[in-house]
Design brief:
Protein name (chains A, B, C, D): TetR family transcriptional regulator
Largest interface: A-B, 31 and 31 residues
CATH architecture of the largest domain in chain A: Orthogonal Bundle
Helix content of chain A: 55-70%
InterPro entries (chains A, B, C, D): Homeodomain-like_sf, HTH-type_TetR-like_transc_reg, HTH_TetR, KstR2_TetR_C, Tet_transcr_reg_TetR-rel_C_sf
Number of strands of chain A: 0
Keywords (chains A, B, C, D): DNA-binding
Oligomer: homotetramer
Organism (chains A, B, C, D): Actinomycetospora termitidis
Order of helices and strands of chain A: HHHHHHHHHH
Strand content of chain A: under 5%
Largest sheet of chain A: none
DNA sequence: GATGAATGAGATTTCATTCAT
DNA sequence: GATGAATGAAATCTCATTCAT
């Protein structure tokens, strides 16, 4: 079901989701799920695919996770925590100028979508595969992230620093475009990571009508 | 596999993809596939789901389409044709001012993503489910659409009408954000279709640094 | 289901089974069935395979034959008629010497299994696919052919010309071996058709203990 | 698909193919496959037929065998191993006289085709159902068996013990006829197993022109 | 009389998950 | 706690056959 390359056994642990305290098998399974699901999607990835990408068996997976769905929830949840945390940290470190603040969170958002590209991809495209209880949790965090952007943009408009007539739409415009980075970004592509960040900052500021 | 609501039989025919000359069953199947796959994705939608949403049986589906994969290819291909055609028509009708031209194609792009929301959703999120031969075709059309935007933005920069320092990235920024409309748009939401269009035109022009 | 080579449309009509009076379509279908079933067996050949090897559609097949099973019966029945007729003719033309008579029917049997190789193959290996009514008919003709051999061998033993102590077993030994020709014979192989015939005659005579 | 009688559960374990070390379920499935396929052929036997003849479900079959095709390969391969081994053992135990040697391998060949009648039947008639990789393996073993006979017959001719002018054809004549035993033999028929063996030995010796 | 659509059963195979050991 | 077997439902797709036109 899963193409050849996803079956390799030695999966470099996607460090973002693995914390030292975790049991290594559970972490390997989560990492394998990221690998496999990023390529084939939730419904296109079988429990056997995931388990064997982690070098174990389905039975082991069920020892660590309640279900395939549970694995997805954990995966999305952690991914969003990373994103939210990075964005909040950026705000904490930024000064008061709305342009600086928007630039900082664009940078955070873009960097996470490059560094944890696969988790981000899954968190975006597999929302529909989430069942009710987990979905609510994930949607809530997703909305929280959006509201962080909304607030910064509104503040900028209120202060006159940004001139856009449509702050909420501009805010969504920006997060959507920056989230899309996970779709096309390839490490080693024509732009360095810093290039990508710089340009997205610049364009985002333009998009809110911020003559720098 | 597919939740109850996706099984309803009364599917408003997604007129964009159905031409009067088509055999009605084949068209109904295509329409049903759009309905079902937009909700559950390609791998999450069974052939039985699709067939019964069209009021027939899997065997009938295989009489009209080579495979489930073939159905997806047809669906994506037609969807992109609609998008490309709309964008090209918009350029043909637009005047020479780069701002008008960009506004026109943003409008076309956004309208297609609202009018044919489900096809657009599938065409975007199920690229990975496409197998080699069909995938190339679809990717080619997708790239063609992007290049239409790239050219307009570059022209605007060359003529001095747009001031962005990163025309290609801005171009992708804009298409990504406008494509995302299919993700969140709900008919009858707080904004009219015209509102959505107007605001995206405005933000897109800001994003390329076009003081109007 | 059927490998590539069996799908070609231009099937040289296997003249043995086609008589000038037949409707050409019915004959083409029979010929196609021989082609396809010889390669894939009855259960391995679909009605669609057969029809398209004949350049038509399943519906046409059902216009000419009652069912797939009916086609098989017709095919086996005609094949055995050819075999029986050839063997009887050989006996009619042969002189009184048992050695000549056995030689003559071995030649007839072997020639039919080379000339109508595919029909013979099917007639032998698809007996089990025949359902009750047709099966009886075919088995009866098969037994009749065996009895022709049995009688010749017994006559030879009675007259002292053959010395085998086991005439019936020798008879079956010979028909089994000669029927097997259809299994391995390839036109253009190392032996000419006449070689094959000559050698089988000689060995068969040895097998009944006939010092020539 | 398979008629009633083939569905009975009480299958006498075909001990030839079942070794004590085997997992019982895998062995039962192999035994059931032999039963069912001997009656209906490979394409005429469904995975469900086989599984339920073994008292399990298709899913269990796929836990033990890669595919229906894989089951066939295993079955043919083991059957031919038994045949080859029996023939080689017979040669090892036989004295130097070519007549004894031919008699010994005819006996071995015939006995295997009576004792493991169904495996032999399948191994002979389902060669065409074997797909490329497995087919080569099976054909190779089949050829090896033929060569054992060829060598014995040639030796007999070289030493002057056999007088046939066509050793290779006589050799094939004999194996074909002896293989055919699996086609008509019924336990409890008019001849005892020893009778069948004795008579085939005698006729085979006649067929190579061996005046005893 | 010929053709394309339809049909309902059934084909092989895979699924997520559980259970003994 | 870990493993291989088992399970029953469901996956995609094909079957022989019939029916309108």
């Amino acid at each position: 079901m899963v193409p050849v390359e996803a079956r390799r056994r030695t999966v470099p642990p996607p460090t973002v989701l693995t914390r030292p305290g975790d049991e290594p098998t559970a972490a390997a399974l989560l990492a394998a799920a990221v690998e496999v699901m990023a390529v084939n999607g939730y419904h296109g990835s079988s429990v056997r695919d995931i388990a064997s990408a982690a070098g174990t068996s389905p039975a082991v997976l069920y020892h660590h996770y309640e279900s395939k769905q549970g694995l997805l929830v954990r995966l999305c949840d952690r991914g969003l925590d990373v994103l939210l945390r990075a964005t909040e940290d950026a705000l904490d470190d930024a000064g008061p100028d709305p342009a600086d603040r928007l630039g900082a969170i664009v940078e955070a958002h873009v960097r996470v979508h490059m560094d944890s590209q696969r988790e981000s991809l899954i968190g975006n495209s597999e929302l529909r595969a989430l069942e009710a209880p987990g979905r609510a949790l994930v949607v809530a965090k997703r909305d929280a992230q959006q509201r962080l952007f909304d607030r910064v943009v509104r503040d900028g408009v209120r202060s006159g620093r940004f001139t856009t007539a449509h702050p909420d739409e501009a805010s969504r415009f920006i997060t959507t475009a920056c989230t899309g980075v996970a779709t096309w970004y390839r490490r080693g592509g024509p732009l360095t990571d810093d290039d990508v960040v710089t340009r997205h900052r610049a364009i985002a500021l333009d998009a809110v009508g911020c003559g720098r």
